[in-house]
């Protein structure tokens, strides 16, 4: 019988810049009476990684460019926020009042370049927002190595974020950083139940786990930014999440 368990870690503290995420996770695992085993997966909400890395953007420190001012009028957003979005982006993909979808500098296609103001404290006189990590894969690798040093266990890491999806309403979790395993399972050449070879199927296993963990984390005031997964059958690999990003030339919607 195939079985997988997901546990949202309890009593997780509010994360501040410079915090040791590995130590916090191990403390929270202890509160849940869980110990790590080789092959376990830890899924972290992007927000706590960005907070620990001090990826805050402060409006009063931003001088909007002419491009940002023009776009701000088109999409009805604060030009300082728009400048932050553009600074994190390669290209504006779509725009309309209230929404701008961009190609993030790391390759993700994301509304507002993943910049968010929910679940962070802010000062009305100098609002701040939270940017994505500088390099989510590097963040995931660093955490994997730190946990291995502290515990001697080899675990897999996913950093997830919630995002809208083409063709569908609502947000779902997706992986924006991974470490230790192959995030895209290639089934091309494998046989189906009727012995027909699969021709195009690749499974975004990192995204599937990220979405399951996101359901456990919640999106509002739940305060559960780390999920422990046991039983996921993953292929160990020294790679990050880049294989999940479709090349622009193969993207029918750009």
TrEMBL record:
Q: Name one Pfam family in it.
A: F420_ligase
Q: Does the keyword Magnesium apply?
A: yes
Q: Which domain of life is it from?
A: Bacteria
Q: Which InterPro entries match?
A: F420-0_g-glutamyl_ligase, F420-0_gamma-glut_ligase-dom
Q: Which GO terms describe its molecular function?
A: coenzyme F420-0:L-glutamate ligase activity; GTP binding; metal ion binding
Domain annotation Coenzyme F420:L-glutamate ligase-like: ranges: 12-231
Question: Which SUPFAM superfamilies does the entry link to?
Answer: CofE-like (SSF144010)
Keyword Glycosyltransferase in annotation: no
Signal peptide location: none
Q: Which UniProt keywords apply?
A: GTP-binding, Ligase, Magnesium, Manganese, Metal-binding, Nucleotide-binding, Potassium
- NCBIfam families linked: F420_cofE
Q: What is this protein called?
A: Coenzyme F420-0:L-glutamate ligase
């Amino acid at each position: 019988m195939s079985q997988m368990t997901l546990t949202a870690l309890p009593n997780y503290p509010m994360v501040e810049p410079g915090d040791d995420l590995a130590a916090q996770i191990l403390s929270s695992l202890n509160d849940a009476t869980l110990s790590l085993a080789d092959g376990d997966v830890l899924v972290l909400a992007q927000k706590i990684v960005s907070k620990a890395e001090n990826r805050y953007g402060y409006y009063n420190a931003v001088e909007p460019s002419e491009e940002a001012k023009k776009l701000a009028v088109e999409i009805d957003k604060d030009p300082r926020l728009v400048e932050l979005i553009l600074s994190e982006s390669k290209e504006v993909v779509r725009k309309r009042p209230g929404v701008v979808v961009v190609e993030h500098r790391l390759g993700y296609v994301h509304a507002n370049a993943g910049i968010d103001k929910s679940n962070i404290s802010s000062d009305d006189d100098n609002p701040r927002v939270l940017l994505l990590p500088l390099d989510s894969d590097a963040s995931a690798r660093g955490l994997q190595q730190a946990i291995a040093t502290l515990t001697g266990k080899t675990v897999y890491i996913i950093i997830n974020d919630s995002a809208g999806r083409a063709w569908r309403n609502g947000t779902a979790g997706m992986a924006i950083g991974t470490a230790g395993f192959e995030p895209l399972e290639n089934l091309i050449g494998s046989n189906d139940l009727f012995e027909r070879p699969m021709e195009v199927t690749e499974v975004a296993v990192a995204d599937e786990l990220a979405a399951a963990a996101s359901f456990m984390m919640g999106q509002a005031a739940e305060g559960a930014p780390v999920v422990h997964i046991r039983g996921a059958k993953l292929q160990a690999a020294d790679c990050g999440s880049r294989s999940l990003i479709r090349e622009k030339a193969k993207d029918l919607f750009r």
